[in-house]
Amino acid sequence: MLPQSQTNQIERAHISIRARSALDVYRAVLDRLDTPVFLLGFEGGRQALIYANRAFERWAGCATATQPAEDWHTLCRIVAGDPGLAQLHSCLSDGRSGQALVRTRQLDGNPGWAEVRVSPMPADDGRERFIGQLRDVTAETHEREHLRREALHDSLTGLPNRRLLKIHLERAITRAQGGGAPFALVFIDLDRFKQVNDTIGHEAGDQLLRQIARRLRHGVRALDTVARLYGDEFALLLTPLPSEQSAEAISHRVAAWLRQPFVINDLRIEITCSAGVVLYPDGTDGRHLLESADHDMYRRKRVRQERPAADFAGASFPRVPEESLTPARRV
Q1: Which of 77, 220, 238, 326 lies deepest, with the highest CB count within 10 Å?
Q2: How far does the chain reach from its first CA to its final CA, in angstroms?
Q3: Cα dihedral: 246, 248, 251, 252 (round 10)
Q4: pLDDT of residue 18
Q5: Contact 220, 214 (CB under 8 A)
């Protein structure tokens, strides 16, 4: 019969073998997963990567064993300073589960997104460890951003639509109520735009709308918002506004910009517009401000002498060589 000391040694050896066998099985299972999985533990007083499966190494683009163990977030390709990384560090510090959406850098250098989850993992030796999972959500995030942009922007011109303009209006109202700078809303309606569509076709009319949108964007400040509301209606949100007179001056400049000839399919087209201006607080919310600007526009339209909306220089639509236009008029 073996001495008790040797029996204990043999039992410990069997336990160690069984533990190593279980760990080997566990790693073999993880290596067959398509999901990047990693294990974090404390090494030298800081969180370090102590294991990663093959899917994680493919994500990292390298064998993790050859990389600095403490630089686990770099191996995850998380962008330094990302707010999501701070959330993950907070979970690790508090010893709790959590997840975060983080910006990443893909292996080809392009920006990406990933969802990272960490959870405490019990250990027999009492050492705190965390198991992490990583999921690439770049395509999903881009799709959501695309759908969000489509919902908030005009598909023809790329300008913010009425919905996004209302969001910007409400933000401007909140800032103004908090003591911020005043602002103005300019409502623009193209005169007799239907004549353009009926005369030279809807495709040319669409080209004209795109050129008008481009001209309006280039004519205002970066802080201002240019939106297409519907059909031939546009709006300018001017914030901050230096003075009441500056809103009127901008509305007159808008009319002058749009009176400059446009060139569509070598046709020289001139168009005019009617513009209404409203200053905050003439309205308690975005909807009332839009209504007030709309009413002011129609009031001005009635009292001013309208010019012909489009001048086609004759029914034969003579072609105008582009080189005959000055650079300021070239579209």
Answers
A1: 238
A2: 101
A3: -100
A4: 47
A5: no
Q: Six-digit token pair at 261? A: 């000839």
Q: Which CATH number fits domain 158-324: 3.30.70.270, 3.40.50.300, 3.30.420.60, 1.10.10.10?
A: 3.30.70.270
pLDDT of residue 4: 47
Q: Which two tokens stand for residue 54?
A: 């093959």
Domain locations along the chain: 31-143, 158-324
CATH 3.30.450.20 for domain 31-143, yes or no, is yes
Under 8 Å CB-to-CB from 62, ≥6 apart: which residues?
Answer: 75
C-beta contacts of 173-176 below 8 A and 24+ residues apart:
173/280, 173/285, 173/286, 173/289, 175/239, 176/280, 176/281
What pLDDT score does 43 carry?
66
Q: Which residues contact 270 (CB under 8 A, 6 or more apart)?
A: 259, 261, 262, 308, 310, 311
pLDDT score at 9: 45
Q: Which of 232, 266, 285, 294 is catalytic?
A: 232
Secondary structure (DSSP) of 123-161: -TT---EEEEEEEE-HHHHHHHHHHHHHHHB-TTT--B-
Nearest to 113 by CA among 88, 152, 134, 141: 141
Residues 6+ apart with CB under 8 A from 50: 39, 40, 41, 43, 69, 129
Contacts of 221 (CB under 8 A, 6+ apart): 238
Active site residue 285: no
Enter the pTM of the model: 0.59
Relative orientation angle of helices 286-303 and 162-177, to the nearest 10 degrees? 110
